[in-house]
Amino acid sequence: MSRSSDISSTPAGDAPGYRAIRFNLDWITRPLFGIALAGGAVAAIFGGAPYIAAFGALAGIAAAREWHRMVGERVFGPSFFLASFVMIAALTAIVLWPHAYYGWAVLASGAVLVGAFAATAGQHPLWQGAGPLYIGIALLALVLLRGAPYGAWIIVGMFLAIWATDTGALIVGNLIGGPRLWPALSPNKTWSGTLGAIAIAAIVEAIYVAALGGSALLAGFYGALVAVVAHGGDLFESWVKRAFRRKDSGGLIPGHGGVLDRIDSTLLTAPLVALAVAVGFNPLFGAHP
């Protein structure tokens, strides 16, 4: 790992808030790399399903490297390469046959294969086999979302709510501090940051949908719900890191940590939004961009 994996200590008391703020290089690198990654994601979204699949494959491979290393495999081990191949094959299938089950079948059978291989290698078969599912389901969901009516705008709206959640939690939590949300699991998260993130996500989503001609009120509730789900995805990855005594999933993205640290919220949110849209939910609330 690029950073210390010793996370045995849990901070005592409330988070100090603005009193502990000190300038560091992350103030520059975090927004710069965040904007660059967001720009690449938006370009892929409006480029179409093949571009989303290609962008997702790159992110998925980087995330798989971190996942399989985090759950006990050496860097660039066989399970990582097999999982990467499975995700690429599944994404290719979902792009070529979006209304068939080939992509899902490839992903599911590939996950079983990865787990079986890990078992023969004396690794954690369930954790290793879960890697392609944990990452790949969200990637396939994004490709399918792009094929829905106004799919590009739906995905952008979802990402705006997720990004607002991450940024809002960081800013509000650092400024206000106070009681920690779950010290044993994620000691840097605070209740103030969580509630502030939900509020900011609601506001951002309301403005976005209203600008497209939809209901700002309903969009605000949707943005708040996305923020809650996004926090759940973040906490799940924190739980996995705690289980394997890792502080961060990696350090590939300056100012952000690992790729998994950057997309953990999306990995839970994207499948749920895709499922909701599949059963008739409209996250644009009447907008017709």
Describe this structure in words.
There is one protein chain. The protein has helices at residues 26-47, 49-70, 78-96, 102-120, 125-146, 151-176, 191-212, 216-243, 259-278, and strands spanning 180-182, 186-190. With 289 residues, it is mainly alpha-helical. The chain has two domains: 47-147; 150-289, no CATH class. α2 (49-70) runs antiparallel to α5 (125-146), α5 crosses α6 and α8 (216-243) packs across α9. The longest helix is centred in the C-terminal third of the chain and has 28 residues, at 216-243. The chain is globular and about 50 Å long. It starts with 25 loop residues before the first helix and ends in an 11-residue tail after the last helix. Mean pLDDT is 88; it is low at 1-6.
What value does the average pLDDT take?
Answer: 88
Count of the domains: 2
Strand tally is: 2
Radius of gyration: 19 Å
Helix/strand order = HHHHHHEEHHH
Distance separating the two termini: 44 Å
SS-derived structural category: mainly alpha
Q: List low-confidence stretches.
A: 1-6
How much of the polypeptide forms β-strand, as a percent range?
under 5%
Enumerate the strands of the largest sheet in spatial order, edge to edge or round the barrel: 1-2
Overall geometry comes to globular
Tell me about the largest β-sheet.
Answer: 2 strands, antiparallel
Number of DSSP helical runs: 9
